């Protein structure tokens, strides 16, 4: 298992970067914030090795339940590091980095459950790529929504210390959330459209629940964006819609893979 050593290195580096971000946030240390990005970027390199060695095996693609975790969190972290360069989402890395450390270990040590020949056409490749991007960006949006909920709670209860000292202004937190949702919805729209066009069996028995749940998630996020534009929805309303849509996506993607590959897997 050649992916084990890179997975261990990536996991340790992620834990170190997450701990460093936590310390810097608690101490309001802005000068050394780049050190988190550097350490996280090094972890991302080892993470990429894990993804390559677990997803692409002997000319075939392994997109099973265990192996997909590393791929999803790789895209999440890459997007998070890039997005953090112009939006204050660094504190999300406190949670995302340790979860990524767990994800690479699960992918490295988990069994193979779904191997395909990797002969995808352009349309199907776009569908898979846009689906992964949508899940990743909307995961960042869900984490941002959770942070926004905490900030809203502290403001309403007039709690000024602790985490409030390192949180950006509420308006900026909300703006960042809706930027992430916009990007995620565009990717999800592309994923659903290409799936309907290029997959003949998207509404077949083993995929219909995944398709329907993803469509309901798209509807929830779209209603939220429309409500933001027309009615000025914000704060806890945005949080509730975001977490509801994200929950449906989790059920659509990982829930369906869990049932199909592990529970209903023929013995």
Main β-sheet, in a few words?
Answer: 3 strands, antiparallel
- Percent of residues in beta strands? under 5%
Approximate shape: globular
Number of strands: 3
What's the pLDDT, averaged over the residues? 82
Low-confidence stretches: none
Run of helices and strands:
HHEEHHEHHHH
Percent range for helical residues?
A: over 70%
Sheet with most strands: strand arrangement = 1-2-3
N-to-C terminal Cα separation, in Å? 24 Å
Number of helices: 8
Oligomer: single chain
Give the class from helix and strand content and strand pairing.
Answer: mainly alpha
Number of domains in the coordinates? 2
Return Rg in Å: 19 Å
Structural features, described:
The protein folds into two domains: 1-117; 120-267, no CATH class. Helices cover 75% and strands 3% of the residues. The protein has helices spanning 4-27, 33-55, 65-83, 93-109, 122-156, 170-198, 208-231, 235-263; strands spanning 56-57, 60-62, 115-116. α3 (65-83) crosses α5 (122-156). The mean pLDDT is 82.
């Amino acid at each position: 298992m050649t992916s084990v050593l890179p997975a261990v290195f990536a996991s340790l580096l992620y834990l170190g970067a997450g701990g460093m971000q936590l310390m810097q946030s608690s101490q309001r240390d802005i000068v050394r914030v780049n050190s988190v990005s550097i350490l996280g970027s090094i972890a991302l390199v080892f993470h990429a090795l894990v993804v390559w060695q677990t997803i692409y095996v002997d000319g075939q693609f392994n997109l099973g339940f265990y192996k997909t975790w590393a791929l999803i969190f790789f895209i999440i972290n890459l997007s998070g590091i890039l997005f953090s360069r112009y939006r204050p989402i660094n504190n999300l890395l406190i949670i995302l980095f340790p979860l990524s450390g767990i994800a690479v270990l699960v992918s490295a040590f988990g069994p193979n459950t779904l191997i395909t020949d990797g002969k995808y056409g352009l349309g199907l490749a776009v569908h898979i790529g846009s689906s992964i991007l949508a899940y990743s960006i909307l995961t960042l949006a869900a984490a941002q929504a959770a942070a926004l909920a905490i900030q809203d709670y502290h403001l309403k209860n007039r709690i000024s210390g602790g985490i409030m000292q390192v949180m950006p202004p509420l308006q900026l937190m909300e703006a960042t959330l809706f930027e992430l949702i916009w990007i995620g919805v565009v990717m999800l729209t592309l994923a659903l459209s290409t799936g309907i066009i290029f997959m003949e069996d998207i509404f077949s028995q083993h995929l219909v629940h995944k398709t329907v749940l993803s469509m309901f998630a798209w509807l929830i996020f779209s209603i939220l964006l429309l409500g933001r534009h027309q009615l000025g929805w914000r704060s806890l309303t945005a949080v509730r819609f975001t977490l509801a849509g994200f929950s449906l996506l989790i059920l659509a993607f990982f829930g369906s893979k869990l049932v199909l590959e592990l529970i209903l897997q023929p013995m």
